[in-house]
Design a protein that fits this description.
Blueprint (H helix, E strand, L loop, with lengths): L1 E5 L3 H12 L3 E6 L2 H10 L3 E4 L5 H6 L7 E4 L4 H13 L5 E5 L3 H4 L16 E3 L1 H14 L5 E5 L4 E7 L11 H7 L5 E8 L2 E3 L12 E7 L3 H7 L9 E5 L3 H12 L5 E6 L2 H10 L4 E4 L5 H6 L7 E4 L4 H13 L5 E4 L16 E3 L1 H13 L4 E7 L4 E7 L9 E2 L9 E8 L2 E3 L6 E2 L4 E7 L3 H8 L7
Parallel strand pairs: 1-2, 1-4, 2-3, 4-5, 5-6, 12-13, 12-15, 13-14, 15-16, 16-17
Antiparallel strand pairs: 7-8, 8-11, 9-10, 9-11, 18-19, 19-24, 20-23, 21-22, 21-24
């Protein structure tokens, strides 16, 4: 497939890395020649330096025979015009745009993106994706990462193994014998900074971060087995009342749990805007690092604190201070992936990577065939993929033990006949089943071949 990616920043680069690694014909366009040089030197892509919205620049990028364009520059307006030019001048079939401004995303203006107006097939809002990720983290406070699959019936949980974990040093194959009715599968382990797919003989050690697919109804039991307690969230403090913080607060207000929320925002105008938009939430104007203001927000009694300002270091320090003041669970918004190794030593329980959430969202729409969901793990090291099994797939009609999956792939959950089950080696996969797999990045192309989806984009 021939794809043009406009914007060679963090998101554009990651999408280019994914698609070029899957042998797609990828061209990256950016006005910054240094970013283009980085992309062409490190990835198997072509690069064009220039403004993505200019027709002559898109022409040089090969727009006349491109099948998809992804507009992910830092400017909403450039992304929108790029899609318009791609449609009107070159007739590109599929157009994806990243838009940040809330004004462009208001539901009452959704007609703007019809083909006869501003033809954008998929609008990606990073802030909406981040807010959704934050709410998921809050819903599973004992895990450092979480994502839902199979319409919410299956969850991928990231769990840190600590000394109180009852199954530490136990071979994974024994977990099946010990907990025969538990619908959960350990699909990935990060040990000493390295992520890998475990084998049945592997054990979990203290300090490991593991990824577990489990059934929605078995989340509490799974967390208990791995030594975690699911605490109820009743009081939440948000540091940062911008678009992300406001969206999270609005969702918490509208939720059935009646969570008591307080927002701390440094910028007076943003604080006033948040106070006007929220009904039951208390908004405090001031520095989220100020101990007195945190005390006024009731941080010592809070069940969770979420730091979502636009500054990584502020978010990290706010979390550290909140922990020191007695808050049990803290989450930081982190844009720079090189800071992630510092989070555990600092006692920060979980983090949200806006790049990973945006990349996951875009990938979900790129893999458009029968792939229903994609979640990017870590720094694009692995993917969790949910897909419907086609009749033409090599895995249809075969038992899992008979399928030649790559070493870096494990089947996490299976929906068969409307019922979500834990897959076993003897489980037969049939046409129409929905499968959720965990795959290391280098094995994703082979997974797509097995699922027969890469030819079914449009």
């Amino acid at each position: 497939m021939k794809v043009i990616i406009c914007g060679a920043g963090q998101v554009g680069w990651q999408i280019a890395r994914h698609l070029s690694g899957e042998r797609n014909d990828v061209t990256v366009v950016d006005s910054n020649a240094d970013l283009i040089r980085r992309a062409t030197e490190t990835l198997d892509v072509q690069g064009i330096a220039g403004f993505a919205s200019y027709p002559d620049v898109l022409d040089r990028a090969g727009a006349s025979d491109a099948e998809m364009i992804i507009a992910a520059t830092h400017s909403d307006e450039v992304n929108m015009v790029t899609c318009q030019v791609a449609h009107s001048v070159f007739g590109i079939n599929r157009k994806i745009a990243r838009l940040r401004s809330q004004s462009y995303l208001d539901a009452i203006y959704s007609d703007l993106y019809r083909r006869d107006h501003m033809p954008i097939d998929v609008v990606i809002s990073p802030e909406k994706e981040v807010a959704a990720a934050a709410l998921q983290r809050l819903s599973a406070p004992a895990s450092f990462d979480t994502e839902v699959f199979m319409e919410g019936e299956a969850h991928l949980l990231g769990i840190t193994i600590e000394e109180e974990c009852p199954v530490v040093n136990t071979p994974l194959r024994q977990l099946t014998d010990l907990f025969s009715t538990l619908r959960a599968v350990v699909v990935g382990v990060r040990r000493d900074g390295t992520l890998f797919v475990p084998e049945a003989k592997d054990q979990l050690f203290v300090g490991d971060d593991c990824y577990v697919f489990c059934h929605r109804d078995d989340i509490s039991r799974t967390m208990e087995i791995f030594g975690k307690k699911n605490t109820k969230q009743e009081r939440v403090v948000l540091v940062g009342g911008g678009n992300v913080g406001l969206m999270v607060a609005q969702h918490l207000e509208a939720g059935p749990q009646r969570i008591r929320t307080k927002v701390i925002e440094m910028d007076r105008k943003k604080a006033e805007k948040a106070a006007e938009a929220l009904e039951r939430t208390i908004v405090l104007n001031g520095d989220g690092l100020n101990a007195a203001l945190l005390a006024e927000a009731g941080i010592s009694r809070a069940d969770a604190m979420l730091a979502v300002t636009d500054d990584d270091k502020t978010n990290m320090l706010a979390c550290v201070r909140a922990k020191a003041e007695g808050c049990d669970y803290v989450i930081a918004l982190i844009n720079d992936p090189t800071l992630v190794p510092l989070l555990t030593p600092l006692g920060i329980d979980a983090y949200i990577n806006p790049r990973a959430t945006t990349v996951s969202s875009i990938l979900r729409h790129i893999r458009h065939g029968r792939v229903r969901a994609v979640y990017s793990i870590g720094d694009a090291e692995a993917e969790a993929i949910e897909a419907e099994v086609l009749s033409t797939s090599p895995i249809a009609g075969r038992k899992i033990s008979e399928i030649d999956f790559p070493e870096g792939v494990l089947v996490g959950m299976l929906r068969k006949g409307g019922k979500v089950i834990r897959p076993m080696g003897s489980t037969r996969i049939d046409e129409g089943d929905v499968i959720a797999v965990f795959a290391m990045a280098e094995d994703v192309p082979q997974v797509e071949q097995l699922l027969q989806v890469s030819i079914d984009f449009f």
